[in-house]
Every structure is written in structure tokens, then in C-alpha cells.
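Researcher: I'm preparing a figure for a lab meeting and need a structural model of a single chain. I don't have an experimental structure, so a prediction will have to do for now. The sequence is pasted below. Please return the structure as C-alpha cells so I can convert it later.
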Amino acid sequence: MRVKFHQNLDGLKERLLVMAGLAEQAIQRATEAYRTRDFSLADLVFQSEPAINRMEREIDELAYELLATEQPMAIDLRFILAVIRINADVERVGDQAVNIAARAVEMGAHANPDLPVDIPKLASLAQAMVRKSLQSFIEADAEMARSVLTMDDEVDAMNKAAYGALTEIITRQPELTPQALNVLIIARNLERVGDHATNIAEDVIFWVQGSDVRHSSMD
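Model: Understood. Here is the structure written out cell by cell.
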């Protein structure tokens, strides 16, 4: 009976990783659509959203069924609870990708001024956080997950710098307001991707070590 239960846990993990792969690909495509103005990539992001949403519901249903029928304890219980929370964060990473893709498409309708915000670098940092948080989940590595938490400071700092630079442009060059606002929102979406990666890392720590590090300092 427990063999079947642990097979179901493995299946739950595999489904979540497939969904995470779709969300990670969506972020990559959305930021590439912004960088290259290749809006066929944005279309692929929009098309992937229903599949991500459907997988989120399926994973939740399976997790709740295991909780109800197997009454797991200790690390198995923490694993299922962590999966439910990670599942929600992965779906929201997909939502952020859709938002970025939509802004990239909207920017294509306007001139393309040279704004002083390095969106590709910010995107690269946010994607690195997502990849590392998911790798820590794959390897059940709490120390790797803790290293993700320290990466969030750089993403937050870049987003804050983008806000300062873009609000100054809006003040001095109001004709650039539409494009500056789009870049501001994209930067904010990427900062949120970093937040979701942080949440995933915190859930891995909870699963592996039983420590709830949400809303706490690193020391």
C-alpha cells in the first residue's frame, strides 16, 4: 500500500516539474519577445497559459486526494503541502510571463526609444532564481534553496533602480511615458518572478528541514 503511495508522490513531483518547465519556457519566450520584438514568441506564451492552468488544477486535485485518502505524516505530509504551495507559485510565474508578453506586444506599436533599464539582465537573474529553486526541489537540497533567498536582493535592487530611472524619464520626457510605463511594468513582473522563486525555495526548506522561513530574516 505504501509503495503505491510513494509512487503517487513521485508522480506528483513529475507533474509539477513538467508544469514548471512550461512556465520557465514562457518567461524565456516573453522576455525574448521583448528583446527581439518577435511577437510570434508572445503568441506562444499566450497559447501555453491554458495548459499551465489546467495542470495546476490537476496537481492540486491529486495532492488533495492523497491528503484525504493516505493521511500522510511528517516529511510526506510536508512534501504534499509544499507541492500545493509551489504549484500555485509556478502558475503565477506563467501569469507573469503572459503579462510581459502582452507588454512586449504593446510596445511594438510605438517607437523604440533607448531606455536606461537592462531588462535582459533582470530577466536573466529572475530566470536563474526560478531554475535554482526548482533544482533544489528536484534534489531536495535545502542549502541550495537557501542560496536562492540571497539572490532576491539583486533582483529587488535592479527593479528599484528601474523605477527611479523610468520615473525620471517620465518627468523629463513625457512623450516617452507609454514606453517607459511598459518597461516599468515588465521590470515589476520580473521582480515578482523572483518573489515566486523565493517562495518555492522557502517551501523546499520547509519540506526538507521542517523549518518555516517565510517572513523571517536569513540569520
